[in-house]
Amino acid sequence: MKSRILILIIISLSLIQSCDDKLDILPQDGIGSATLYQNEAGAVAGLMGVYSRIVRAYRESRFNAMYPSSGTDEGFENRSVIRFYLENSFSSNNAQILDEWTLLYEGVNAANIMLVEVANSDGLTEAQKAVFTAEARFLRAYLFFDLQRAFGGLDGIPMPTEETLKQLLPRTKGIDVYAQIIADLEFAEQNLPAIQETVPGRASKSAAQALLARVCLQRAGAPFTNDGDYYTKARNWAKKVIDNGYHGLNPSYEDVFNKLAQEEYDTKEVLFQIGYFFGNSDQQQSGKIGSTMGFRVDDGSCNNRGFGLISATITLTNAYRNDPTDERGLWNVSPFYVPTNNSCEFRTSFNQMVYAASKYRRFLESGGTGSYGPHHWPVLRYSDVLLMYAEAENELNPGSTAALDAVNQVRSRAKATPLAGPITAELIQEERRLELCFEGLRKYDLIRWGKLQEKIDETVTAMQAADGAENTDWAIYGTGTPATRTNTLLAYYLDGYTNYDNNKHQLLPIPEQEIGGNDLVTQNPNW
User: Using CA atoms, how far apart are residues 526 and 501, in angstroms rounded to an integer?
Assistant: First the structure.
């Protein structure tokens, strides 16, 4: 990649196949963006080009899925060779870091170009312009938020907008990045249609409200301070979703993820999802979530491999097993896998240390090949909205019964034992792990709570203590009489934890290639 990545990326908004068949727009070769945005159909086609950048940015499942889970109290990368940047053993010239940075900013640039073209269009009505602008600003805010959480910190990120997309930019202070994200989302919330009126897979008013709640909670926590009453704002945005009367929990936790695997939309529970698509052997719009960190399938003849690159921590496994009625336990942390040459039948793992994060089940996918398939990625779920409401409400009113009720709604759906109260911040934080594990949130949650180092230490201690202990699941789920049923801790399982430097690894480094091409950009601390 040449230098000056942010500014010199060339985006083609002539259309490629969209991320979901409901959004498919045929390519119109030779149509420039100035011509494209002169009618509603052309503007929709341009918008699909922005969505296609979202698909490309997250299709490898490293940045949105594996990275926020690995090296936490939720999961760890369990390979000795496939490290990417998941084990905190890399430098600022890491190729995957550059890839993530570049793809996310390509999406930002595409959204900015759309904003310019919509504003300049003579063929769109003012009402149409408002809706298209709202959707482009939602997508830009979503990308800025991911960039800011991963790379920004107090110093922030370069933040190109439609007014500055041709300029080299320094880093914008983190508080100002959040101000822009919130402004984009507030505009989107005012102008996007209700989710019932939206084409499935596209942004909606509910999605903007839920993302605002998430952004405000992140802004309230470390490394920032709650200097703008962001807990109140987070609570109020979450409450808007709760009070609109449409959204609710799917009665079955399992069914939420069955639908994602089968490319379906459950808009009552899943407020926004990234839809991957696999057709005509086209891998460009498909993704890896089912193969990289889903249910482990060793036999590729059983509807494609599931590599299970992220294992659940023993503390997460035990937390589920301590409440046997909690249906999330066997779904998210399954002792089962599909071995080779076993007629695609399940077998039980001897070692609890290698239980894969099994939330995403590739054998449910209808298509795909190799590592890629059409499994959708959940971005915002209603259960998260309830837990965000509970967290913010409890911060404002410690021991709040309203917060307790919101948490118990989530637990009730999972058949988990209700909490008796009083509710505490620690109980809410643990519920987020139990409900939302492997959905790309845990590392960022622990950072904003100031607890990442604490949870790393606790996890390492627990894993070491479990080494050589009996697999306690075997009496319930195991079959046969293997030579050993003891847990085995391999040294490299701990690499992501022992390599972690709390003064360095809370942020990813700005890619060296970016700094080399733009001397206005400074590096993150200790990189």
Answer: 10
